[in-house]
Amino acid sequence: MRRQFESPIVLLGARLLSPYIMVFGWYVIIHGHYSPGGGFQGGALLAASVLLIRVAGGRRVARLQIQEFATTPLAIIGVVIYFATGLVSMAMGGYFLDYSALPIPGMDPAWLRYTGILIIEVGIGLAVMAILVMIYDNMVRGEDYD
Amino acid sequence: MKAFKVLILALFAGILIYAASDLPFRGDPDNLMHAEESITGTPVKGNYFIQNAYRDTRTPNMVTVVLGDYRSIDTFGEQVVIYTAGLITLLVLRKTRRRRK
Amino acid sequence: MIDFFLGHYAYWFTILLLCIGLYGILFKKNLIKKTIGLAILQISVVLYFVSIASKWDATVTVLNPDIPVDQVANYLNPLPHTLMLTAIVVGVATLGVAFTLLIAIYNRYETLDEEELIEKLQ
Lengths: 146, 101, 122
Fold this sequence. Notes:
Structural class of chain A: mainly alpha
Distance between the termini of chain C: 57 Å
CATH topology of chain C: Helix Hairpins
Mean pLDDT of chain A: 88
Shape of chain A: elongated
Order of helices and strands of chain C: HHHH
Shape of chain C: elongated
Helix content of chain C: over 70%
Largest sheet of chain C: none
Oligomer: heterotrimer
Number of domains of chain A: 1
Strand content of chain A: under 5%
Strand content of chain C: under 5%
Number of helices of chain A: 4
CATH architecture of chain C: Orthogonal Bundle
Low-confidence stretches of chain A: none
Largest sheet of chain A: none
Helix content of chain A: over 70%
């Protein structure tokens, strides 16, 4: 953003609202088994809470939150969580992404599938949040040059 | 010339609306896509998801089950797609900036 | 006749939305407006898929213990909802790529108008 304005009211409102949106995003991800929700929607909410601070405060305030270089590793972590779940279940003798072969003791296959869905939802949420923030950062940086 | 183009677009809309009169009624539970068996005699997937989702995964939300378990490879490919989209923004905008310096 | 109208008006509105998107893609000269038309067209397809998944007197696709699962007509069809859930996210990502390319074009040619862009390309 070429012209950054300093408005304490907008920044205060964004700072007040952002943690609640982030908590609600994690609620949507974790509670996606019992209500409408899941990884994509929760990830979009997490990205909204991060982008709110970035839009309101500019780059200097955004450096205190998730920094620009941290978004690419977060996206890779999200994708790797998903892929590693599939690979582990394949290594333990099942098919790729067949969660009933996950090596968690004391669970029957139905509850293992429940746990597997929870793990990959967290991975999807992390990846979607990091990628949306990454797109915003790169677009601002591309527009910003003189 | 612009009126001609708008006429072509209106004609296209008319053709689509005429074709839509052959579609099944919206919300009718006896549609082919909601039926127990398809035309070729195989079971319809949507009914299988409704009936067996809770028994298979103990998860009440059927959309989550279809997204995360039955069609999980589809979701994985889609996640790779959005990751690639993020990488493309990184590569394209970095390159223009360096060239301008 | 009234049954035919109630069963088909959702399709007509999605066709109207699709034609608005096509109008934006075909007739507007600005590339940003073309991209917005592309997004509207995609939303019309998403609405079409969601509308064919509906059943009258059915509940949402979250299991309610009071409603038996044997009667399939009690629940909406979960498959189109899932497909559109993934389609929306892919749409957002591709829209980001489209705007990225537009920013790259503007940085290099300093215009987004179609005809000026063709003149500058030659």
